[in-house]
Structure formats: structure tokens, C-alpha cells
Amino acid sequence: MTRFAAAILFAFARLAGRIPWRWHPWLAARIASLWLRTDARESRVALRNLELAFPDMAPAERVALRARILRVTAMQMLETLCFWTRPHDENLALVRAYEGESLFDAAIASGRGVIVAAPHHGNWELLNQWLAARTPISILYAPPESRVGEDFLRRVRAADDDARRVTQVRAEASGVRQLLRTLREGGVVGILPDQQPKGGDGEFAPFFGLPALTMTLLSRLAARSGAIVVFAWCERQPAADPGSPPSFVVHVTPAPPEIASTDLRAGVAALNAAVERIAARDPAQYQWTYKRYTLRPSRRGEDNPYRDIERRRR
After folding, report:
1. pLDDT at position 7, please?
2. Is the pTM of this model over 0.90?
3. 253: β partners
4. Mean pLDDT for the chain?
5. Which of 122, 136, 216, 278 is 20 to 30 Å from the Cα of 194, by its Cα?
6. Is residue 224 over pLDDT 60?
7. Integer distance in angstroms from the first to the last C-alpha of the chain?
8. For residues 94 and 29, is the Cβ–Cβ distance under 8 A?
9. Alpha-carbon distance 125 to 133, whole Å?
């Protein structure tokens, strides 16, 4: 039954992925407008995150940035349905330029293993396909609560020949051991570094000036394996013509050496600082609809900065 439900979802995704590119801007604007009018979760969380991360920003500027974020989030959702269900070669033709490509190739050629830290900036699903086209890669993922959702994600990320070069690894103890083996054998591992880990699995470090619980896994893997760490993201470019397909630039940059420190607090501080620099390039392309600051250093639930906006919807 789980596979059948996932297949139905995939069929709907494939249908939605056929929507012409020229319709995306109009649809994204309508979706964003709906989120604003209905005070949807995406709208409430984005505004609260902006209040936390940019306390000195003028309220009107913050509201305008939220509107841009919602339009870009809706656009990314539509694009991702296309990328999941169209041939990867067709998707990768939308990547118009590369910055740091030689750095990535040199890191692979070193034989030391490579950790690709890929923040939620731009379109990370297209980045996954670009990475898989260049090298076999193991991607760490946090499984959804629903088995149907997990089967669906595994299916859409395995819908092309390039998927044979991707190993999807669950974020659990056995998966971590698998990643460490891959790195010690000179392989490549991809990690989304800016998701809040479970309590006890991370350290607090500043992120846009506010303490955020941050994964220590990436630093531990780097320190234990000796792998090279790079940051990578796939950034959307301004459209020359509203009706034209989107275009992207893939960026690869070296990670600060402190990320591999055995001092985990120093490692996560360097990690967050690097993600912050990427997000600040174009804040509208970062995933501000995610509750990044739910767990607080006090460990008291009443300090959750999203509690009041959650109560507002009950």
C-alpha cells in the first residue's frame, strides 16, 4: 500500500512537472499571495525568522522581503517538481555557469574523500543532480515521518540514470558509519548542514546573531576521516525574460579549516558562519520557511520563538 500511494504521488508530481516554464512566475505569485492572505505557516515562519535574524531591519523592508521569499519558495517548489520528473540532462542544461568547478574536481582527485556541505540556498535538488553527474555520491537525508513520504522522495530522487550514482543514506547511526567508510575510501558525501538536529545531537552556535542548535556530524566526519570539505549551492539567476526557463549558477567554495576542528564548538561556529555568508548573498533564495531556532539554549519549551505564531492558528 505504501508503494502504491508513493506511486500515485509520483504520478501527480510528474503531471505538475509538465507545467510550462512560462507559467511558473504567474503561479508562484498566486501561491505566495494565497500564503499571505491565509496567514499560512510559510508566511508566519518566514516573518518570524526575519524578525529574529534581522532585528534592525525596518518593518516595511522586512515585510517586503517576506513577500519575495514566499514567491521564490513557491517558484522553487514548482521547479523542483520539474527537476524530479524530467531527464537530468535536460535539467542540467539550465546550469549556465560554474564557479569553483576545478576546486571540486581537485578535491575528488586527491583521494582523501570529499564532504559537500550544501545549504538550503537556491535549488539544492538541481545541485544534487549536478553532483551526481560528476561523481558517485552518498547523500545523507532525514527521513520524513510518513513512510509514504519517504518512499516518494526516494522514488523522485531515483527517476533518472544518474540516480544509480547516488546512494541515499538515512540520518541514523548505521548511516553515519556508512558515510565514514565512504570517506575513508576516497568517496564523496553530501550533507545539508543547516537543519536543526535532535536535542543532544548538536551544539549551539550563532546564526545571524542568534544561537542555533547546529549539527556536529559534519565536523566529526571531517575530523575522523581527513576528508576535504567544500560548500556548494545552485543559485538562481535573474530571468532575462519572464517567460523563459530559469537559469542557475553552481558555486563551489572551500570550507574554513576550523570546520574539521576536534573542538566541536569551533567547528559548528565555522559551519554556521559559512552558511550565513551564502544565505546573505540573496536572502530571498534561502529557506526562511524552516523553523531554525525551535530549540533554545535554556532547553525550556516556553522559549521557543515560534510558540505564539503556532497558538495563533489554533
Report:
1. 82
2. yes
3. 231
4. 92
5. 136
6. yes
7. 32
8. no
9. 13
d(CA 253, CA 233): 9
Contacts 24+ apart (CB under 8 A), 196-202: 196/291, 196/292, 196/293, 196/294, 196/295, 199/295, 199/299, 202/268
CA–CA distances in Å: residue 171 to residues 82, 142, 201, 259, 261: 26, 5, 11, 20, 22
* CB-CB contact of 157 with 166 (8 Å): yes
For 131-176, the DSSP string reads HHHHS-EEEEEPPPSSHHHHHHHHHHTTSSGGGGGEEEEESSHHHH
Beta strand pairing status for 248-254 and 95-99?
parallel
State how far Cα 14 lies from the chain centre: 22
Instruction: Convert the pLDDT of each residue in 106-139 to its tens digit.
Output: 999 999 999 999 999 999 999 999 999 999 999 9
Return d(Cα 96, Cα 230) in angstroms, integer.
21
Residue found under cell 570539505:
229
Q: Which grid cell is 272?
A: 554556521
- Nearest-5° angle of CA 79, CA 81, CA 82? 65
Neighbouring C-alpha atoms within 13 Å toward the C-beta of 80: 18
Residues 6 or more apart whose Cβ sits within 8 Å of residue 57? 50, 65
- Cα(136)–Cα(301) distance, integer angstroms: 42
Please write the tens of the pLDDT for every residue from 259-313.
999 999 999 999 999 999 999 999 999 999 999 999 999 877 778 999 998 766 5
Residues 62-86: pLDDT tens digits? 999 999 999 999 999 999 999 999 9
Instruction: Catalogue all structural domains in the chain, each as residue range(s) with its CATH number.
Output: 2-311 (3.40.1130)
